[in-house]
Amino acid sequence: xxxxxxxxxxxxxxxxxxxxxxxxxxxxxxxxxxxxxxxxxxxxxxxxxxxxxxxxxxxxxxxxxxxxxxxxxxxxxxxxxxxxxx
Length: 86
Description:
By secondary structure, the chain is mainly α. The chain has one domain (about 10-85). The chain has 2 helices and no strands. The radius of gyration is 31 Å and the shape is rod-shaped.
């Protein structure tokens, strides 16, 4: 029986090569299938980040324009949360 120097026969080596090729194909297919989902998640993340920045800017502008009203709203919100949580 012929071996390749590692103790494997040519048919064993061929079988291992076929399995390795199939495994590579499965990994490539999985990566191709996951790419659109990753792109969608990236887009959603960027949209949420932009929305967050706008909300912070709007809130900051409101608090700057109406400091006493903002303080009153914060006080009432804190009291309500304190009642709900306790």
